[in-house]
């Protein structure tokens, strides 16, 4: 998890790892990725509602930045965070945060794992966030997921 605010910079990095999964057929890769991404958004909002926070709205720019990050991580075969200063500038947000993960079987399992990690949970439940973008890539049978949060 990394969080960036124009007023104060706070950087926390926690990387989530998990077990490898069996590969999926290539014909369904795009639709399955969209489904996993939708699950991440939906389950994130379920957690926010359970904890008295507003639901997040998807934003195209944050989704684009999350998708690029998921592709970069899958290509390199390692988890890492992107420069959230750049995300904030490009997406015109004053505050941004990010969770990354790989290897979980679906979006629900990914969010469940993030909720067990104090720093990832903190991003999901951050009351100031209003926007979300999720990127998902499947490579070598593993889902790579980037979740980017923002506030205008």
Care to describe what's here?
With 152 residues, the protein is of the alpha+beta class. Helices cover 43% and strands 23% of the residues. The protein contains five helices and six strands; from the N terminus they run ββαβααβααββ. It has a six-stranded mixed sheet, sandwiched between helices. A hairpin with a 3-residue loop joins strand 1 and strand 2 (9-10). Helix 1 runs parallel beside helix 4. The two termini are 19 Å apart.
Quick tags:
152 residues, alpha+beta, globular
Going across the major beta sheet, what is the strand order? 2-1-4-6-5-3
Order of helices and strands: EEHEHHEHHEE
Give the overall average pLDDT: 85
Helix content: 40-55%
Q: Quick one: biggest sheet?
A: 6 strands, mixed
**Number of beta-strand segments:** 6
Number of helices: 5
Calculate the terminal CA-CA distance, rounded to whole Å.
19 Å
Radius of gyration: 14 Å
Strand content: 15-25%
By helix and strand content, what is the structural category?
alpha+beta
Low-pLDDT stretches are 5-25
The backbone outline, from C-alpha atoms, is: globular
Topology:
Elements: E1 2-5, E2 9-10, H1 29-50, E3 57-58, H2 60-76, H3 84-91, E4 95-102, H4 107-116, H5 118-125, E5 131-139, E6 142-151
Parallel strand pairs: 3-5
Antiparallel strand pairs: 1-2, 1-4, 4-6, 5-6
């Amino acid at each position: 998890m990394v969080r960036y605010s124009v007023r104060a910079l706070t950087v926390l990095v926690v990387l989530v790892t998990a077990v490898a999964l069996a590969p999926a057929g290539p014909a369904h890769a795009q639709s399955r990725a969209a489904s996993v991404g939708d699950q991440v958004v939906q389950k994130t909002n379920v957690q926010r509602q359970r904890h008295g926070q507003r639901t997040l709205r998807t934003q195209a720019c944050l989704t684009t930045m999350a998708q690029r990050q998921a592709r970069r991580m899958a290509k390199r075969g390692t988890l890492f965070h992107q420069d959230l200063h750049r995300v904030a500038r490009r997406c015109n947000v004053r505050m941004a945060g990010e969770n990354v993960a790989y290897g979980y079987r679906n979006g629900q399992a990914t969010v469940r794992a993030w909720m067990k990690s104090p720093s990832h949970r903190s991003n999901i439940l951050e009351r100031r966030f209003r926007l979300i973008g999720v990127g998902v890539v499947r490579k070598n049978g593993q889902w790579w997921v980037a979740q980017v949060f923002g506030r205008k």
